[in-house]
Structure prediction request, 121 residues.
Amino acid sequence: MSAPLKYALLIAVLLLLVSIPLAMQREAGGIDGLITNETGPISKASVEARNVMSGTVFRAESDATGHYRLKSLPQGRYSLWVKAPGHDSVWIRELIVEHDRTTHQDIRVGKSPSGPLPTGE
Prediction:
């Protein structure tokens, strides 16, 4: 094989490898929403989205107004786990993320009981 042909083949392979992440980005979507309790928005709540098929985990935190956003998620099915200090955790079994779309999911958390746990005595 001649040297110019080898270089042309090498360049073609490199261009193909570079284009793979760009193609995957087009198949990405997102999840966003508002986290609240009975008195209003919850800031600094942790949100964990787990891709049901691959097990890949994506994380976000709610801002001062209770909004959260997970961007650049590969399309697929996700479960969502929300935790906020002083509140009960919330698990959402399944959300569908489609490419070039953002799935909106508001979440309401309840306050955890305060004080020591009952001992059964």
